[in-house]
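In the previous chapter we treated chains in isolation. Here, by contrast, the input contains two separate entities that must be folded as one system, with a combined length of 532 residues.
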Amino acid sequence: MARMKFLCDADRCIECNACVTACKNEHEVPWGINRRRVVTINDGKPGERSVSMACMHCTDAPCAAVCPVNCIYTTADGVVLHSKDLCIGCGYCFYACPFGAPQYPQVGNFGSRGKMDKCTFCAGGPEADGSKEEYEKYGANRLAEGKLPLCAEMCSTKSLLAGDGEIIAQIYKERVMKRGYGSGAWGWKTAYRETVGS
Amino acid sequence: MAYFARVIRLAICAGALLLLFSAASPSIAQQINPTASAVKEQQLLQELNRIQGRVSIPDQRSGVLEQPAGREWREFRNVTLHWIGGIAILGMLAVLIIFYLSRGMVRLESGRSGRTIVRFTSFERFVHWMTATCFIILAISGLNITFGRTLLLPLIGHEAFSEWSQWAKYAHNYLSFPFTIGVVLIFLMWIAGNIPNKVDVDWMKRGGGIVGHDHPPAYRFNAGQKAIYWVVVIGGGLVAATGYQLMFPFYLSGIEGMQLAQMVHATVAVLFVAVMLAHIYIGTIGMEGAFEAMGSGTVDVNWAREHHNLWLEEENARTGVGDARRRSAATAAE
């Protein structure tokens, strides 16, 4: 089985936000929620760097570990998914997540959180693959159709890579060798406890 | 002539271009790293333990790219808190059971006089029970978030546990308001009797008379009750403040502030529960005649004399009925 991962080649990201838009459109993500975003560090200064970030589908995912109702699970592909039927919207996964992936639609009073929403690696949820219920709760299940996440698929500079961790790491390593530099796979050390080609 | 000048100019231009090309030869270009000065992930993490930038989407909070501090919070929630809570609550239960078995109920030594004195007004009792009811529900729903996954979920299954936890969360959020009001009212209405004084030192030295049959003097509230009062006021204030910070995400702080708030909230809360177990014990099966103070609002005069003699004297002096009562008690005894 493949171990699915994301890899953002920050030397290539031009902050076009196509990944952000593609994700929102593909999954009809609710208003106010962005499963993927592009963060620009040192914006406008020398050394500026843009990184596209979403759920990294961590190894030994912290969100799953702290969930009080145990609604977050890792699939055989290494994708971290959750059940919106079981989620109580307590916010704990959000405190634990290193990447700010879990978000909650604001429902009702105060800051009361609805069911958590996050990147599914285009792999839907616990419902039957490709079902209407699955689409309404989690968005499209491209993985079940044999496709990879849309954000990476339509990245204009092929900065964002998604797929089997070993294959995308290999692609990145070759790039680094060819061009002679690379700033490393952002977030990999935090998410997977390993790094590649920095 | 003009033609000749044009040819020379062209030749010069071509020469200059050639020069430029040779200067920027590919062999040199390959050694340049255009991103050498760019920010580095590990360096940023080492500096601040978080990476923050600018986002062009409306949700500005998503500008935090990475915050590995969540890992420490996870350790607290999944390991440390279980130990603190387990030791505090089970330890307190064990102490109370052992104490009950060895000491038993603290009896009214002089028996009941049959005459009563008002200890808590109906308003005071209302405030107490409103706070107490909220506290019990808050405690159960809070402990559910911490221990439910380990203890309850395997017993009742995912669906039932989620349904129950969802309701528990609503209860926890909404009952925080009457609870907070209760804590504020408790603070205001009993502050006068809860300032520590010299009598408390003596009371503490004699262990409150809880071991043996000693009855150290006390005003309306003895040192033990004062301790409970301050635990409720300070602990209640802390859990309320941190709880609202969690209930209103991002109003007061970013994510690291919320992690800290949750740690304070949970730690204070489990210790609070442990202390309240002792409070419930001594107010019910631990001491004869104690429950009625908060039940009917009146206590037996003999109970007041044994446990709060200085308060009874104060009350008698204030109402002026004490002398008459003492006289009638004396005649009855004869």
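The mean pLDDT of chain A is 91. DSSP finds seven helices and six strands in chain A. Compare these points with the single-chain example from earlier in the chapter.
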